[in-house]
Amino acid sequence: MFKRIMVPVDLTHADKIEKALGVAGDLAAHYGATLVYVGVTAPAPSPVAHTPEEYGKKLANFAADKGIAHGVAAESRAYTSHDPAIDLDETLLKAVAETGADLVVMASHIPNVADYIWPSNGGAVATHADVTVMVVR
Amino acid sequence: MSDATNNQGIPEPEGAADIIDTDYQIGQDNIETQIGPFGLDIHNPVFAISGLAIIAFVFYALALPDQAGDFFGWLRPALTTTFDWFFLGSANIFVLFCLALIVLPVGNVRLGGADATPDYTYIGWFAMLFAAGMGIGLMFFGVLEPVYHMALSSPLGVPSPFAEDGSIIPENVEAARQMGLAATIYHWGLHPWAIYAVVALALALFSYNKGLPLTIRSAFYPILGERVWGWPGHIIDILAVFATLFGLATSLGFGAQQANAGLDHVFGVPVSTTVQVLLITGITAIALVSVLRGLDGGVKILSEINMVIAAVLLLFVFFAAGATNILSDFANGLIGYAKDIIPLSNPIGREDTGYMQGWTSFYWAWWISWSPFVGMFIARVSRGRTVREFVVCVLLIPSLVCILWMATFGGAAIEQVLSDPANSAVKAQVIDSYNPPMSLFAMLEGLPMASITSVIGIVLVIVFFVTSSDSGSLVIDTITAGGKVNAPVPQRVFWCVFEGAVAIVLLLGGGLGALQAMVISTGLPFTLVLLVMCVAIWRGLMSERRA
């Protein structure tokens, strides 16, 4: 049913998205799909990596580990954004097209009152992506 | 859990830069939490202490307005007169250092590593440099300063063309006209941009090439070592946040007064604090929208719009005042600048202390107190450029544009004053009485379509304030988040609104003058910071070349 599953990850909070990662891995194993881990970083140094190139390498290592853990093929794709806090939704939607994903599995917070002011990332991607989106809470 | 998620065992990137090996992890001092629905990611001492110190100073200025006014009203001039040689000498060092970087082989080092590509196109980059660095000043001083230096301040002892009774002395005209332009260009040319370039280069080098967090303290790593993550670093960052926020808030407050004067002149809107508070609220609201749209969708677009409107006004004045006249003013100003830059930048043995201390030293202290903000912002948008490209584009090209701007606006104004002094509105507003906010409008009155161009002028002033406010909010947000550029969005909203609120409170409570004087006083410690940055840049570039 699904051939390529895109999984947006925030490497600084990888522990918080354990559930979504597990779900993505299980789905990939079930459907024989490839996992594509997508991360977005700024050009400036962050807690995870000193440069975007280093971030790309870390994401690739992360993807390789996950692929082995779930027994499926795994790829990664790192994006650089000038203002990640704002451009995240746009970058993820672009990533959906560029990775050729037909399913997106992402973590999102429990909806709260702030979502009336501006939508969560999960909400934005689910609303605007052309493909199936699963928001794991 | 794989250890790609923590920061140990960091691999060396290939072909890239010379990462500094430090145990400090960006964000390790941060408190990450939630207040209701809003996330928070703040650097522990810096955010809290900056915020509290700012509130404390605002209270001080409101509770003891006379004392604050007297103290800072004494302190700032005392510093700029006593240390005039220090400010001028340091600024000369920065210019020479930057020029050296253009010609030396270290200029080949690329910010972000050998494989980095520029983040922005030239147009977007220039627009943002200008809008953050200098836009408001050009609007405010573009007419005022050339006329003032021509007629009143006698830089290098060049006599005024006006006699005591207001008649013109023909033999003095040529020299005064050239000096009016040259003395102004000196203040808006190589020196201020060298100040910004030094800070921006230091921050960009230590972040993009050395992997340290994007905060002011990172440039001190070669000097202070690991201590830079403790209190010495905290103090540097707190001082930077402090100077930036008060610099922006007091400029905003004064800017609202200027815009009010302009609106009164063109539309008859009454000059009152209500109008000014509304202006500040409006500017903050637009800045907020820009900040919410982010760097590319907000700040960059507004800066580009600014640049287009400013270019339109510049071209209009250029042609309306006579293109050949302005071109000869441009040449005249450039020749005067080249001829007089060394005497004008001489830090010792000067006799024209009124000009040197009242203008030059004051300006240098002011630019230096703004340099953490402007430098950090320029660093943020400059990844991927080589050092040579960076210095040429941050130093030489903006200087040329400022020279053209001063030649156009100042040249047109000087021509109005000298050709018909009795009827010149500029003479009335600058020489006979001193009414700086009106100088631009007075000059535009002497050209056709004055009501339209005056409106464009007001719009331009307002939008330049917006672009300063939005880029300032992003800078303060980054410093108080310990160098993280992706802190939760509510934080930058907080700083943007806080800045507007401080401006309003000072405007109503009467502390604008006192606290602006305070900000400029921080120019003295920051000059030391910049000198240290030159050393740090040099050492950093040398190790890049070897890596």
Helical proportion of chain A, percent range: 40-55%
Q: Work out the strand percent of chain B.
A: under 5%
Oligomeric category: heterodimer
Biggest interface: A-B, 34 and 48 residues
Total helices of chain A: the number is 4
- Label the overall shape of chain A: globular
Structure, explained:
The complex is a heterodimer of chains A (about 140) and B (about 550). Chain A is an alpha/beta fold and about 140 residues long. Chain A has one domain (about 5-135): Rossmann fold. Chain A has four helices and five strands. In chain A, helix 3 runs parallel beside helix 4 (about 120-130). Chain A is globular. Chain A starts with a strand and ends with a strand. The relative contact order of chain A is 0.20. The model of chain A has no long low-confidence stretch (mean pLDDT about 90). Chain B is an all-alpha fold and about 550 residues long. Chain B has one domain: Up-down Bundle (Sodium/glucose cotransporter). Helix content of chain B is about 75%, strand content about 0%. Chain B has a two-stranded antiparallel sheet. In chain B, a hairpin with a 2-residue loop joins strand 1 (about 30-35) and strand 2. In chain B, helix 2 (about 65-80) runs parallel beside helix 19 and helix 10 packs across helix 19 (about 510-520). The radius of gyration of chain B is 23 Å and the shape is globular. The two termini of chain B are about 35 Å apart. Residues about 1-15 of chain B have low confidence and may be disordered.
